[in-house]
Write a structure and sequence with these properties.
9 strands, globular, 199 residues, six-stranded mixed sheet, three-stranded antiparallel sheet, alpha+beta
């Protein structure tokens, strides 16, 4: 009888201990969930994302005529921040996401690569020395701004920025697919900036 009582007491103590431990873990997990947003489960603190910004228009806003293909056709300038360590160059792709002519990809309006990392951005209408402007797409080697026709809805345009750990050995007539393939293994960061436009 005495052994049964001691065994029962031992089992109760073990169950109580497990319950206390589970409660503590739940509290810790909840606290971690509240304080660990954006950490990506790495536990080493938040990694600042690569950012691109412009004064030309708000992210997601309406693109002014100055930057449109049938307007001034001036390429907006962008500032880059939170540049990842090891970044040597940048590549940028501009596409109309609402039109698919060949395949599922949007219409390519402009692409450039080997943009040096040091300036931390690109000025309006020009690129730093050494940059390569691709001749593929509707721009044929020049920036071609948004050109969506008049209608009930806006087209959405994406400026996609890639931080790369090396320069690219690509001819100017490289396609978008060739550009993406060439930089696939050297991408150290990515950002995007969106705008809307219609005539």
């Amino acid at each position: 009888m005495r052994n049964r009582i001691m065994t029962a007491a031992l089992v109760l103590a073990m169950v109580a201990g497990l319950c206390i431990d589970a409660a503590a873990q739940a509290r810790g997990g909840a606290a971690g969930g509240r304080g660990g947003g954006g950490r990506g489960g790495r536990g080493g603190g938040a990694i600042p994302p690569l950012l691109m910004t412009t004064d030309a228009f708000e992210d997601g806003g309406i693109i002014p005529e100055r930057y449109a293909g049938r307007g001034g056709n001036v390429r907006p300038g962008f500032a880059f921040s939170n540049i990842p360590a090891g970044t040597v160059s940048f590549a940028i792709v501009l596409q109309d996401l609402d039109v698919a002519v060949n395949g599922a990809e949007g219409v390519l309006h402009w692409q450039a690569w080997n943009i040096p990392a040091k300036p931390g951005g690109i000025p309006e209408g020009s690129l730093p020395e050494g940059s390569v402007v691709g001749t593929a797409g509707v721009g044929r080697g020049k920036y071609f701004g948004p050109g969506a026709p008049a209608g009930p809805r806006y087209h959405h345009y994406a400026f996609e920025l890639y931080a790369l750990s090396a320069m690219l050995d690509l001819p100017a007539d490289a396609t978008r697919d060739q550009l993406l393939a060439a930089m696939r293994d050297i991408i150290v960061g990515k950002a995007a900036y969106f705008g809307r436009f219609r005539q």
